[in-house]
């Protein structure tokens, strides 16, 4: 599904060039449940942004279903995000002046072509996903009346609105207490297992990374573990056993890369 | 993105930031109100000045005169004339739609009457002009026609051969028989003649000839007067004499006696006089400014009666109807090439002054709106900065850069539309207030208009459009900056 090869990314501050990703090769297959872990500043969020097509300024190649993302123009990339990706962030990013239902239906506003739908249809679909996250009774509520866990559920509902194949989550439990984080994790697991949605989660949370079927460990701008079988085969110099000194524990047996996750 | 959704988002955002936008749009409201107000004022004044005081689609041509001044006298050395040939040449000038020759009454005359209007009969010297009835047909379309009822007859008294000139004893007989525009001519003349005969007998002099054997029905000479006279009378003259204010509409039908060949200046009086009665049938700016205007046929017959046949074909001026106001300069130049002059009405100077007035105030208003647009730009820059994460999440959810730019520009357009509507409404309200104050507190003056403003729909649409355009222009750079928002940076801090 997603194939990254030789992806490099650097930021320049004045005369200082900070290379954040230094030739990343990763494969992520359909229906995988992947955690990206690493120290702060290791490049995991940058990698997530590139995977989610939020960042298109990089070197190397990102291929999705055989199509190079960098061949798409701004409208093409935007359309790709709209149709295929659901985003979940630590800070929820809900529009405070809109009701929960309107927030959830917001992706419909930016849908193009065959994906565009009437307002009524969008709101109906919004109710459907609000039910899915068990917040049907909060459709008309404003986000500032909800708890952190409820807000994240609304954000998940928004991410699910366009039936995405891929969900990109950046520290989704970072602002939640343990029990709420557990409930969100259960929801992610259900989405992955029941609907086959591919989930890529950047996290520092052990509970989350342990629950994932595969962990991609990134250290100092390089993937040091869990790059995927093909990526490892094509770049044999990559040592999957290298200890990056990460503050995240190594994946458990259950979190090892699954065979069907390979492209 | 659908327009309705775009506007929906824009309106939601405006509601969210209504205080900012309210403050930012005050400048637009003031600017657009000033723009609309002053241009409407200019348009209204222009309408009165160029439409009523100096009609610009008509020019009056007069013969060129070569004079020298000798002490207090101006002695004419040579004068061009306007005859039938000149009239034809004038008609041949490009963009001249029609030529209407005018003829002045060249004999002293007097007018008497007015009791019904002023409370007393007044006697005054008559200055009279003759025009082709078709020239004033648009102005005089009331119940009384303006036409030469005695056209085709021989001499000024030839009317007695007309079939309608039936014998009578009183005006009522003629009114009943022929209509309201008839009176019984000769009753007063015979009474005067009898007095003159008696006086002649006493002085043992030759009695004057009998003016008519029997009184006969005759139509009043239709008379029109200029709106200037009414304005001058109502605005100034009546105050000096304590006369009532005249309602022009009810003055139509007013009748008076006309005596041709008579004058208050004894030396000017002719040895014989002709009499008739006139009836005011309407008002026209084409009429002579001070005096009475009648169909040119009457003037021609009177001038021939007291002069010679040649005077029948000599006009004192000609009114040229021009296709468009824009062609006036070209036609005026062609007229001057024919050794004729165009009367200086002051219209060009007035038009120029009004145009300058409109340009200055229009410019000032545009500057106000421009400054407001800069203010709008600052507000949008600030809001775009504050809403970075909102814009970022919209980008993450599928909004393209173009979508973001359109959202911001739509917000600006909505602000412009609202501010423009309020500005236009304020201008109209201020105009109405101004008119009300004028109506109530400003004394009458010549040409005092009912309204000083012309809120032409095109002006209102233009003002509305300007408001939107300036806001959109003001929001352009902020919208471009918003479109460049990097979602990765604002959402994940990378």
Can you characterise this structure?
The complex is a heterodimer of chains A (263) and B (494). Chain A is of the alpha/beta class. Chain A has helices at 44-51, 74-84, 100-104, 106-109, 119-132, 148-160, 178-195, 206-211, 229-234; strands spanning 2-13, 16-28, 33-37, 59-64, 67-68, 85-89, 166-170, 198-202, 214-219, 222-225. In chain A, the strands form two sheets. A six-stranded mixed beta sheet of chain A has the order 6-7-8-3-9-10, with helices on both faces. In chain A, α7 links the parallel β7 and β8. In chain A, α5 crosses α6 (148-160). With 494 residues, chain B is α+β, with helices and mostly antiparallel strands. In chain B, α11 (347-386) runs parallel beside α14 (457-483). Chain B is built from 15 helices and 15 strands. The chains are: A alpha/beta (263), B alpha+beta (494). Chains A and B meet through α1, α2 and α4 of A and α1, α12, α13 and α15 of B. Chain A: Keywords: ATP-binding, Nucleotide-binding, Transport. Chain A: Residues 2-245 form the ABC transporter domain. Chain A: It comes from Plesiocystis pacifica SIR-1.
Helicity of chain B, in percent?
Answer: 40-55%
Average pLDDT metric of chain A: 83
How much of the sequence lies in strands of chain A comes to: 15-25%
Q: How many strands of chain B?
A: 15
Determine the fraction of residues in helical runs of chain A and give it as a percent range.
25-40%
What are its keywords?
heterodimer, A: 263 residues, alpha/beta, Rossmann fold, six-stranded mixed beta sheet, 10 strands, disordered C terminus, B: alpha+beta, Alpha-Beta Plaits, 3 domains, 15 helices, 15 strands, 17% strand, elongated, ATP binding (chain A), ATP-binding (chain A), AAA+_ATPase (chain A), ABC transporter, ATP-binding protein (chain A)
């Amino acid at each position: 599904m997603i194939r990254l090869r030789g992806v490099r990314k650097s930021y320049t501050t004045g005369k200082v060039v900070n290379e954040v990703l230094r030739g990343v090769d990763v494969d992520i297959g359909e229906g995988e449940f992947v955690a990206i872990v690493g120290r702060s500043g290791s490049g995991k969020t940058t990698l997530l942004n590139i995977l989610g097509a939020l960042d298109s300024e990089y070197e190397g190649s990102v291929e999705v279903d055989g199509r190079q993302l960098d061949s798409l123009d701004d409208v093409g990339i935007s359309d790709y995000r709209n149709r295929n990706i659901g985003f979940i962030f630590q800070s929820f990013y809900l529009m405070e002046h809109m009701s929960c239902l309107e927030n959830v239906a917001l992706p419909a506003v930016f849908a193009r072509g065959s994906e565009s739908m009437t307002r009524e249809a969008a709101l109906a679909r919004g109710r459907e996903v609000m039910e899915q996250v068990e917040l049907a009774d909060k459709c008309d509520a404003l986000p500032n009346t909800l708890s952190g866990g409820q807000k994240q559920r609304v954000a998940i509902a928004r991410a699910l609105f366009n039936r995405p194949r891929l969900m990109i989550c950046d520290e989704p439990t970072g602002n939640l207490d343990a029990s709420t984080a557990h409930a969100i994790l259960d929801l992610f697991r259900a989405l992955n297992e029941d609907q086959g949605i591919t989930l890529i989660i950047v996290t520092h949370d052990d509970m989350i990374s342990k629950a994932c079927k595969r962990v991609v460990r990134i250290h100092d701008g390089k993937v040091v573990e869990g790059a995927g079988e093909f990526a490892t085969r094509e770049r044999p110099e990559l040592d999957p056993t290298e200890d990056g000194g990460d503050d995240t524990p190594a994946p458990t047996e259950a979190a090892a890369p699954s065979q069907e996750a390979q492209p | 993105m659908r327009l309705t959704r775009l506007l929906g988002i824009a309106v939601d955002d405006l509601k969210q930031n209504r205080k900012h936008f309210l403050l930012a749009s005050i400048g637009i409201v003031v600017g657009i109100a000033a723009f609309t107000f002053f241009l409407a004022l200019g348009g209204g004044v222009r309408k009165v000045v160029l439409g009523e005081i100096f009609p610009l689609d008509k020019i009056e041509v007069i013969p060129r005169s070569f004079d020298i001044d000798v002490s207090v006298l101006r002695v004419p050395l040579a004068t061009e004339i306007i005859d039938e040939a000149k009239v034809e040449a004038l008609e041949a000038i490009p963009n001249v739609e029609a030529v209407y020759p005018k003829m002045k009454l060249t004999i002293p005359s007097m007018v008497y009457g007015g009791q019904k209007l002023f409370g007393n009969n007044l006697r005054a010297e008559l200055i009279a002009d003759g025009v082709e009835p078709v020239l004033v047909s648009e102005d005089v379309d009331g119940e009384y026609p303006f036409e030469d009822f005695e056209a085709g007859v021989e001499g000024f008294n030839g009317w007695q051969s007309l079939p309608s000139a039936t014998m009578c004893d009183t005006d009522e007989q003629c009114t009943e028989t022929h209509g309201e525009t008839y009176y019984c001519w000769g009753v007063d003349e015979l009474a005067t003649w009898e007095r003159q005969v008696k006086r002649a007998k006493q002085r043992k002099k030759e009695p004057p000839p009998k003016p008519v054997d029997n009184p006969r029905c005759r139509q009043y000479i239709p008379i029109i007067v200029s709106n200037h006279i009414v304005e001058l009378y109502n605005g100034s003259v009546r105050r000096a004499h304590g006369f009532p204010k005249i309602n022009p509409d009810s003055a139509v039908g007013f009748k008076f006696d006309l005596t041709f060949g008579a004058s208050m200046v004894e030396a000017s009086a002719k040895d014989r006089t002709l009499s008739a009665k006139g009836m005011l049938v309407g008002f026209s700016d084409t009429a002579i400014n001070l005096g009475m205007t009648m169909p040119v046929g009457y003037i021609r017959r009177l001038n021939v009666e007291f002069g010679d046949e040649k005077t029948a074909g000599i006009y004192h001026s000609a009114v040229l109807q021009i296709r468009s106001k824009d062609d006036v300069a070209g036609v005026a130049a062609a007229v001057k090439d024919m050794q004729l002059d165009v009367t200086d009405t002051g219209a060009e100077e007035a038009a120029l002054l009004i145009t300058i007035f409109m340009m200055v105030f229009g410019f000032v208003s545009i500057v106000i709106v421009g400054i407001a647009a800069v203010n709008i730009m600052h507000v949008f820059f600030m809001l775009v900065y504050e809403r970075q994460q909102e814009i970022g999440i919209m980008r993450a959810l599928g909004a393209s850069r173009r979508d973001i730019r359109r959202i911001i520009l739509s917000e600006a357009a909505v602000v412009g539309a609202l501010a423009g509507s309020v500005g236009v409404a304020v201008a109209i309200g201020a105009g109405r207030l101004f008119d009300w104050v004028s109506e109530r507190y400003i004394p009458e003056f010549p040409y005092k208009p009912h309204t000083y403003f012309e809120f032409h729909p095109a002006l209102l649409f233009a003002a509305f459009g300007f408001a939107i355009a300036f806001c959109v222009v003001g929001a352009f750079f902020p919208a471009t900056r918003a479109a460049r928002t990097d979602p990765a940076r604002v959402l994940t801090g990378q």
